[in-house]
Amino acid sequence: MTNPSKRLLLFTAKLGYQTRSFEDAAHKLGVRLVYVTDRCHQLEDPWGDRAIAVHFETPEVAAYTVMEALRGQDVSGILALGDRPAAAAAYAARGLGIRYNHPAAVEACRSKLRMKEVFRDAGLCVPWFRNLPVDPAPEPVLLGIFYPCVLKPLSLSASQGVVRANDREEFLAAAARVRRLLQSPEILATREANLDQMLVEGYIPGREVAIEGLLTDGALSILAIFDKPDPLEGPYFEETIYVTPSRLPESVQHAIEKCARDATRALGLSHGPIHAEFRVNGDGVWPLEVATRPIGGLCARALRFSFDGASEPIGLEELLARHAHANELPPAS
Ligand SMILES: Nc1ncnc2c1ncn2[C@@H]1O[C@H](COP(=O)(O)OP(=O)(O)OP(=O)(O)O)[C@@H](O)[C@H]1O
Ligand SMILES: [Mg+2]
């Protein structure tokens, strides 16, 4: 067995099938996968894999820990699974001189408010929006709220606390729900920023799509467009079925790709995987959000890529490992 001298860093809060896929990919590439994780600071090397233990809530400190741990070692690339790990990864990349997104761009993606401001200032389609304190309970009549609208926390994910309101009663109930969620011990324990605020924005009707993309020095390759065939009209927006390849007309797919390019450029993202969501209607393509992480779960497993030099199609994790390690990209389809 070879003893790889190059290291590929994987910033992640979770271990599971996807991290195992990255391990397999690293093995094939002859690089050593080094985990950077916040799951093991009380245990010494819990998986026997010499993971670097950090706290993702302080990304600069996490980056410093990583740089100290890797002093003198050869790091070829950086990957992150999740929004919080991506922030630490961005700072570490700066320190190690590795290509990755700038920390400011990653931080913008972690705030739904900041992201909306960036999209608005870049002239992209955005609904009206404003941030409100969760306490005291906001009175919509005094705030000039229009209906239908959507209330949401500024920096949670998996549609937690995302609620549609069609009138004042629903708004008040939704605001109370978001407040309860943000003040719950589990959410407070994350020490996420802006837990005292919520975002309210106009409801965007239309179909929803997601894209999986890969940035190389600012140029975005679209790896897949996913249709979300469920209606997703609220009041809650649970995870849904994803269908790829998209069945939307080619002109609409091109408009989505253009919007994805405009949105990533506006955010200043430059390198690595992105997962982005959009709504599409007669007025155009509306970016909902861009996350600096790959898709996970079954959707990731459904993706296969043909690659020069690979005897059979490879999975998303191997594609991302190759890209992070050696800047390799799949041939454009
Ligand atoms: N302004 C809006 N108009 C219509 N639907 C919306 C709006 N904002 C959010 N949604 C719906 O709620 C879902 C979740 O919202 P959002 O992406 O902002 O939060 P999230 O917690 O990051 O969700 P996830 O992690 O599932 O992507 C969206 O995918 C969309 O279906
Ligand atoms: Mg989302």
How would you describe this protein?
There is one protein chain. This protein is of the alpha+beta class. It has 3 domains: 126 residues, Rossmann fold (3-Layer(aba) Sandwich), CATH 3.40.50.20; 72 residues, Dna Ligase, domain 1 (2-Layer Sandwich); 88 residues, D-amino Acid Aminotransferase, Chain A, domain 1, CATH 3.30.470.20. It is 34% helix and 25% strand. It is built from 11 helices and 14 strands. A 4-stranded parallel sheet has the order 3-2-1-4, with helices on both faces. Strands 5-8-6-7 form a 4-stranded antiparallel sheet, with helices on both faces. A hairpin with a 2-residue loop joins strand 11 and strand 12. The longest helix has 18 residues. The radius of gyration is 20 Å and the shape is globular. The protein starts with 5 loop residues before the first strand and ends in a 7-residue tail after the last helix. The model has no long low-confidence stretch (mean pLDDT 92). Adenosine-5'-triphosphate binds next to strand 6, strand 11 and strand 12.
